[in-house]
């Protein structure tokens, strides 16, 4: 029998409205007891006085590039990166090579992740075969194999008719569609947000309407069909307003926002920094403030990194030739604690909710809270730890971050998955 006793942490569990100094007893990978001053012999004791313990962080939107693009990231490097960032579970997008569009590939991801044994890797299956936007996949087979949701992320589901059918089909298996909202006709050739900075830099702009048109379409389809839909990485004030309206109307819509859209604006690309080239693009200060307000008032359901590693040869190029995307697993928590909580005053409880029980609820997972009898997936955070982002020290194969050199306060110092340490700085 394996026993570990975590002593004296401040336990913050938004899913149970719980915030108190507690001990946590872990037995054989599960939480056996949570209460003050547990005294027990023959147990490994870890002193967490002055530390924050939360349910294991969940990232519902990552790209591990495996199979096919392992030179960018693979399940092992991605899992280590997640653990180092405090994440105990991640949901992998299917834009691999080949795309995750059948049950065999879903099983491949699950099998490889279980061999790595670091964090829980939850595969997301494609909406359409080959992500071509033409024919719906066998979602039932993939759901039975372990797909937690369906998405063509990296691309939108452009056809409204196909999206409508897919939403109904996915709902039959208690799964939802996660849509990358983008009107292809408004995106074509776009590099950064359309506005002052794109004009100054002479780069083709991507207007807010490119995202908002598809957000509105998905909301209207969800309202008509009474099925759920999730909007990935919202970036504009208009998208926040649309989701807020839809929720008031009782539409089953949820959405996520990334740490970079919550903390950076289009100004980050002023020196043609391709590490800040992302899709959807970084927007304006007004958009950023609307995203923060959506986080505060509950419009936003989850914070997700959209961790998108690329090889340096795909980023160290002329701006219009460089790939979209940045890595975020190892910086997300520090960026959120420093910039969103520390500088913008969003409550700590709110951001922990959006990184634990929030994404778990969206995906319909029995995760994100610390319950006696449940798996011991725990993130230990030092809120006072000051550190400087160094891209050359990442576990991820990617180095494409605009946060290199940022001074941050707050860091995951231990990540526990099923009672075992997946990462520790203790």
What is the topology?
Layout: E1 3-13, E2 18-27, E3 30-35, E4 44-47, E5 52-55, E6 57-62, H1 75-84, E7 87-92, H2 103-116, E8 120-123, H3 139-145, E9 150-151, H4 160-171, E10 177-179, H5 184-187, E11 192-193, H6 196-201, E12 205-206, H7 208-225, E13 229-231, H8 237-248, E14 253-257, H9 259-263, H10 285-297, E15 302-303, H11 312-315, H12 332-343, H13 348-354, H14 357-363, E16 378-388, E17 407-417, E18 420-424
Q: Major sheet: size, sense and barrel closure?
A: 8 strands, mixed
- Our count of helices gives 14
Low-pLDDT segments, ≥5 res? none
Structural class: alpha/beta
How would you concisely characterize the structure shown here?
This protein has two domains: 3-53 and 374-424, Urease, subunit C, domain 1; 56-363, TIM Barrel (Alpha-Beta Barrel).
